[in-house]
Amino acid sequence: MPNNQTKGIYRHISRVSQKFGEIRFITEGLYDTLQVSALSRDTDTGIQYLYYASTRPSKPGERHIYKVLITSTNTKTTPECLTCDLGDKCLHNSAYFSHNAKYYVLECNGPLNPKIELRRTDDNGLVVTLHNNDRLSDMLSNKLLPKIEKMVVPINGNNLSVMLYMPPGFRKDEIVKYPLLIQVF
After folding, report:
1. In 10 A of CB 83, how many CB atoms?
2. How would you write the pLDDT of the chain (185 residues) with one tens digit per residue?
3. What is this structure's pTM?
4. Which helix (H) or strand (E) holds 139?
5. DSSP three-state, residue 141
6. Rounded Cα–Cα distance for residues 185 and 12 (Å)
């Protein structure tokens, strides 16, 4: 559901009271929630966690997996990012949860070598690496790849995140013309 923030409108997860029609946002901030992945409930304690995919504030090109405690008292809780500490190799992630949400398959889709792992939700511990794409890494090690430069461009009072893919061997000090392709998303 769209949520007005101080610097724009962002998509967030909300809870609507059936009795009163009140809207309570479970997530809020200067980022977009992209997908609800799972809801877990401990049958002994009644504790519920919601798992979802989201961008990060000031980093709209990244996609991470979060979990947040759902309370019956409508108390705000701080989401925990499950993939933010995996480093620069895992900045675009997807997750697929078991039926009871005790485990999840993490697809780390880069920006470099993609990998697939099985992880626990209670402590985010790695159970096993299902696929690490070592062959792909070996093949790419012999190839010239574009240089990627990230920057923020101010336009009309807004800051736009930009990624430039430059040809291998590109030098900014040379006077050479290259074609430019712009993709807006």
Report:
1. 22
2. 666 665 678 888 888 877 777 888 888 888 889 999 999 988 888 889 999 999 988 788 899 999 999 876 667 788 999 999 998 889 999 999 999 999 999 999 988 789 999 999 999 999 999 999 888 888 888 888 888 888 888 888 877 788 888 888 888 888 878 787 777 76
3. 0.80
4. helix 134-140
5. coil
6. 19
Backbone angles phi, psi at 86, to 5 degrees: -85, -5
The residue segments making up the domain with residue 81 are: 2-140
Closest CA to 47 of 87, 101, 114: 101
Residue at token pair 């895992």: 90
- Burial label for 155, CB within 10 Å (0-12, 13-18, 19+), is exposed
Q: Is residue 157 part of a domain?
A: no
Residue 185 lies in a domain: no
As given in the structure block, the two tokens for residue 80 are 């925990």
| Residue 146 located in a structural domain | no
* Long-range residue pairs from 48-51, CB within 8 A, at least 24 positions apart, any chain: 49/101, 49/121, 50/13, 50/26, 51/82, 51/95, 51/97, 51/101, 51/104, 51/121
Residue keyed to tokens 């992209």: 34
Reported residue count of the chain is 185
> How far, rounded to the nearest angstrom, does the alpha carbon of residue 88 sit from its chain's CA centroid?
12
Number of domains in the chain: 1
